[in-house]
Amino acid sequence: MNGFSVEASRYSGVLAGLATRGFVVASSDYYHNWTSPPPPPFPRLGCPESYVLVTAELLGTLLDFARGSATQDGRFSFLHSADLGRLVLLAHSAGGSVAMCMLSGSCGRDADLSPSMRLGCEGLAALHRRHGSALINGVFNKRTAEKAAATQGACHGYLQFNHMNHFGINDFYPNTHQVTPCASPNPSDDQSFETDAATQRAGLDIIAHTTAAWVRAFNKGDAAALDYLSGLADNPRVSAVKTASGCGFAVNSSSA
């Protein structure tokens, strides 16, 4: 689930890393028109005069595609090999907020949701009718801890990275302080942040490897996955890692 106005192509590195680890991967550019004059800096130079945000309704459509019930378009036939009993939502920024609103129940009860969160929650009932449960794994900051704690299902956790900013899950972009071309800089980031292609690729590999290991440890108790997760505390790129007790395994760093 994309960050706000971050196109799917900006996640190619981490998605490729998941695909090579056996995942059936799908991402989408779901564009919406502004209903009022867009706030600065939107639209960015050279970008569409609209914004990207994945909704619960779109996820329901994706599941229909995976079952082959929504389209006969051969481009989606790869989805038919997906195991819909083990659905993983990998979400970033606004997409992560939408995902946790969905899974924590905030979509239906929180009157203070922002307009973008309300839009993201559209179609939630349809999604629940199509699939009864979901596992979310991703990178989120401290401001999302309360939502994570309320997320349906007992297992949740977090990673905190060194040498990454808010766009650390995205491909490398030179001369932009690692802000993707059509998105807005995050005010909590170091606005002079710099990285390089090799450092960014290494970080994306950690995200993909950790996602795969988390799923396999949770679903299968996989010994190799548990070993990898246990070693994250000693990884110089990881400043904190923690799981909740309900995961069936525990991985906690001393700095968490």
Automatic annotation (TrEMBL):
It comes from the Eukaryota. InterPro entries: AB_hydrolase_fold. Gene3D superfamilies: alpha/beta hydrolase (3.40.50.1820). SUPFAM superfamilies: alpha/beta-Hydrolases. This is Chlorophyllase. It comes from Elliptochloris bilobata.
